[in-house]
Every structure is written in structure tokens, then in C-alpha cells.
Request: fold
Amino acid sequence: MGCCASKASSDDELENPRALPSIGIPDAFRGSNVEADTQLTVSGNGAAMASAPVEQDAAYWEVKVVKPGDICIGVARKLTKKELEAGFNRVRDDDELPRSWVFDGAVEAGDIIGVAFGQSDLPNLSFTRNGKAQPAFDVRKIGGTVYPVVSVGGGAVIKVEFESEEFANSPPHGFSALMLAQSML
Reply:
């Protein structure tokens, strides 16, 4: 008898604490010309958004460049279907506030782009390329809810990694793998 204990819904959850929902890229969160498989390999022409927003204080994830092309990696407000179809960094009205913040530097096959988003540290958003800081792409202040996003084109193929066991580089001090928010009730 305890006020904070709950009964697990299956024996699998007791034996495998990682049996929690994972972050993915469902059909509704990507353009119709973008392919995303269960391994989070993304290709095609357009944008894709993770199924979960960044809600933790300091989140980190990586993107491996399988085949170079037109690639943007970062965070954005929830994207419209038009933005998903066109590629989120390619659609913006002149009077509209920024809706996406990205790394769009030159990449080569095998490059690992690390993304660190912090709610309280400045810069809020920073990137690494093969473990080396890319300060030209730092963003100092982003408020509100954002989602991890990628945009691909020109034959680009990338693999998004949210699981810390699969990271090629260590997250910055104080950062951890992006997690789904879990209800305490």
C-alpha cells in the first residue's frame, strides 16, 4: 500500500523499463514526399518533425548524414502541412516571426550533427559537427514549445537518433537524450 506506487500494465514493463513509448516520425508529422522508417532514417524532399516536443530542461539528439544533399536540422514550432511539404526552412513570410532554427551547414557522408536544446541556458540551441562546436549556428533565445525537425532534399538521406546508447558523441554536460514527457498520475 503506497500512495505513489502503481501496478504495471504488463510483465514486460516490469522486466523491461524501456518498454515506454518512443519518439518517432509518424505520417502526419512529415511531408508526403518524405520517407521515414521505424529506424528514423529520413529521405525524400520536404520536412519531418518528431512526434514529441522538447519539454525537458536540457535535451540532446544526433543526426547522422548517410548521404549528403540539402539538409537542415534543428527545432521548430509545430509545422503546417505546407511547411512539411516544402521543407520548413524554405517557407517564411517576410513579416512572420521565425518558426524554425536550424543548422544548415555543409555536411559530408558520415558526419554526425549533435543538437543540444536547453530551456534555461544561453544559447538555447547549439550544434556540433563530429563532436566539434558550430557556434555560427547557435541561437540565443527561443521561447515556447518546439519540436525536433529535419528537412531533406537533393537526394539527402539522414538517420535521426534519440536513444543515448546509439549516440556517437557524448551530450554536453547537463544534457541527456530527448525524452517523452510522462504523466505522474
Notes: The radius of gyration is 17 Å. The chain is about 5% helix and 30% strand. Residues 22-177 form a domain with the Jelly Rolls fold (CATH 2.60.120.920). The CA atoms of residues 75 and 148 lie 5 Å apart.
